[in-house]
């Protein structure tokens, strides 16, 4: 089959699909990754085809909350929708859609008669088990959780409203609102396989049958890839260090955060590796190394702890490595994953970025490195995750679809 995987957003929204694409290619499928230009190299390095989606989340401002988050998200998906149809080549047999691209991809599927399925990285469907990840981390009671989940979906419908109207017009389809399209997909039990672990989120019993949790989609790491020599030398030069990185968050705050992090590491008596990321995190200090993007699978097992923004991918990678975390969430679904880590016992209570100080970070680091309970909880989660095969389940689902 000729499969198009469509996703957009930050690196954490794209990299997991390289592992999924490699698994599908290994099963004999022709796979193309449709995403923004920023991540073309991820597709090429994984040996996948690449096609461009016409939007860049960085062009619409930094992450915020409330109205600002809604405004920037709507601007991003409206731009995405204007050229989304061009990404689907003639002869495409299947669309694999992320949570970001599904509300647009459904219309391409309808117009071209192309089957589709979802491959999501967050649990977006309403449930009584927990509140919607993008809205709240604190439980609201079963009825409140479900109500909040339905409200969150209506907010997503609003974000996509303009893009859906324009896309359906361009495709020659009859007018249909984003909300009506979503509800039609739900009634049809449109299949979604979720790329996270049941160690973090057990499958809710009140989900519809077509919603499954497959297991984490791990980013592709090429065979034979190694850490840079400077990193290897640093790792061997002393006790296990702590990695500190905030991914695509905190743009432009590198100097302020660098001072906080170095101060915290010194207070806790720990060595550190700073991953620069969008913040431009850097420091010139003894026992501190600054690096760029490195494969989590190679680096994390050799750390004492990870300080991170609690993105879904980094959260899973720390658990897979059996390493405790200090979660410093910023926005969107990050408080949800941070709370999940704490509930597992693999991290202390989260420290939101806006409240981060050297004193608070040092105290959290002293807790996770001074007590084996956090590492033991992470190891238990790692053992659970080792029994899951997220990409394998997606491959099997697609093979069944192709055979049916």
Mean pLDDT: 93
How would you name the CATH homologous superfamily of the largest domain? Glycogen Phosphorylase B
Helix fraction?
40-55%
Distance separating the two termini: 13 Å
The count of DSSP E runs of length 2 or more, i.e. the number of strands, is: 12
What is the global morphology? Answer: globular
Major sheet: 7 strands, parallel
Task: Please describe what this structure looks like.
With 404 residues, the chain is an alpha/beta fold. 44% of the residues lie in helices and 12% in strands. The protein contains 15 helices and 12 strands. It has helices at residues 11-14, 16-26, 40-45, 67-83, 102-112, 142-171, 178-187, 229-236, 254-268, 296-299, 312-320, 334-344, 358-370, 372-386, 390-403, and strands at residues 2-6, 30-35, 49-52, 94-97, 116-120, 192-194, 211-213, 242-245, 272-275, 288-291, 305-308, 325-327. The strands form 2 sheets. It has a 7-stranded parallel sheet with strand order 3-2-1-4-5-6-7, sandwiched between helices. Strand 2, helix 3 (40-45) and strand 3 (49-52) form a beta-alpha-beta unit. Helix 9 packs across helix 13 (358-370). The chain is globular.
